[in-house]
Structures are given as C-alpha cells and as structure tokens.
Amino acid sequence: MSPLLTWSLRIALLLLVAAIALALIRVFRGPAAQDRVMAFDNMYVSATLAVMVLGLSYHSHSYFDAALLMALFGFVGSTALAKFLLRGEVIE
Amino acid sequence: MTPTALPFWGEVLIAIFVLTGATFSFIGALGLVRLKSFYARIHPPTLTTTIGVWALGIATALQSSLVEGRPVLKAMLVPILVAVTMPVTTIFLMRAALFRDRIAGKDVPPNLTHRSVRPVLPTSEGALDAGHREDAAHVRSITP
After folding, report:
1. Domain limits at B139?
2. Are residues B68 and B132 in the same domain?
3. Cα torsion at B7, B13, B16, B22 (round to 10°)?
4. Do residue B26 and residue B75 come from a single domain?
C-alpha cells in the first residue's frame, strides 16, 4: 500500500473519530431527549464508517461484517428510542 | 498488513472516496454541534448518511474488486441498508420532536392529520387548546 493511501486512511480515521467526539458533545449537551437520540444516531453511523475505514486499512472482511451488524443494530436502537419518545412505549 | 497489488490509480481513487466520505461526515457532525434548533439540526446528519456512507461503501467495494480481480459488490450492502433504514429513523424522530414540542407548548406548526380523538395529556393548556380548537373548526368546515 502506497504512503498516499496509508495517510489518507489515517486522516479519514482521524476525521471520523472527531465526528464521533462532536456527536458525543451533542449527546451530553442536547437540551431535549430527541437531540440526544439524533446525536446517538449520527454517532453510530460515524462509528460504522470508522470500522469500514479500519477494514480498508487492514484488508479484512471481518470488519465489513462488523460494520453491517453495527448499521443494523444501530437502526433498531434508534428506532426503538424514537418510538419511545413518540408514545412512551416501544410496542403498542 | 498484507501486501497487495493494487494499481496506483486504484489507490488514488480509493483515497479520494475515503477522504470525501470522512470529510463530509465530519462536516455533518460539526453542523450537529453548531446549529441552534432541533429542526435545523435534523439536517446535517444526512451528510453522513448519504455522501459519507456511499463514498466509503464505493471505496470498500472498489478495493475488494481490485484485490479479487472481479466485481465484488458485497460492500454496497451497508449503504443500501443505511439508505433504507435512515429515513425511517428520521421520520420517527421528527414526529416525536413535533409531538413533544406541541405538548410542551412551543411554537410549532399544528397537527395536520385531523383525528377525531386526540390524546388528552397533562400539559400546559394554551397550545393544546389552540390546536384542539383549530382541529375542531377544520373538521366542521370539511364535514357536510
């Protein structure tokens, strides 16, 4: 792997970790519950992207499967939280 | 790290896609922190879930295709999954935010689905009553 791609992947990982940190700031600071849920949602998508970048830099398919699972369970979690905010119960 | 025989143009393309995706994802998170209201903040995460996810999915698919020497599109599953699931979450969150802001008596647009039965909740009276009256007037105006 050329230094160009290596450094691009490092910079991308840094940017994604910064994105997770910014979303974490919103999770802690968000005035209402829906702000926190939305920031959590953005956080797990950024984490999925970070795992995909790791898979690119290590040439491993296991990282891709982990990213797929994270996307799937993150969706289930955020939808359950949003549904709870909407009605106060998850399954009616 | 295993040594691979990626051509140089492939590495450049992968680098461009990865950097684009990561940059837009960072900009989205920045907007999430900087914008003032929830209704403004619902927009920036879409940068992450469109350009960020698609660019990184394309980069991963490109890399596995170049390594295997044939089209390997398994990596596009993540963008497709996110594209299908993210609107559902966003719509739920938006409805939840509107619902909670109406209950809290904030200045938000009234409910447009005119239900005959509204849930009566312990709340500050003014906004809910205004919405109630408006709904009742609208129902009277459309009922023959």
Report:
1. 117-144
2. no
3. -90
4. yes
Summarize pLDDT for B57-77 with one digit per residue, the tens.
Answer: 999 999 989 888 888 888 899
B58 and B20 within one domain: yes
Q: Could you tell me if B143 and B80 lie in one domain? A: no
Q: What amino acid occupies position B56?
A: L
Residues 12 through 71 of chain A touching chain B, CB cutoff 8 Å: 12-13, 15-16, 18-20, 22-23, 25-26, 32-35, 37-39, 41-42, 45-46, 48-49, 52-53, 55-59, 61, 64, 67-68, 71
User: How many CB atoms are located within 10 Å of the residue B21 CB?
Assistant: 27
Predicted confidence (pLDDT) per residue in A23-53, tens digit: 999 999 878 888 999 999 999 999 999 999 9
Task: Give B 77-136 residues with CB within 8 A of chain A.
Answer: 77-78, 81-82, 85-86, 88-89, 92-93, 95-97, 99-100
Is 0.90 topped by the overall pTM?
Answer: no
Look up residue B24 and give its two tokens.
């837009």
Same structural domain for residues B54 and B124? no
Residue B111, Cβ density class (10 Å: 0-12 exposed, 13-18 middle, ≥19 buried): middle
User: Would residue B131 count as lying in a domain?
Assistant: yes
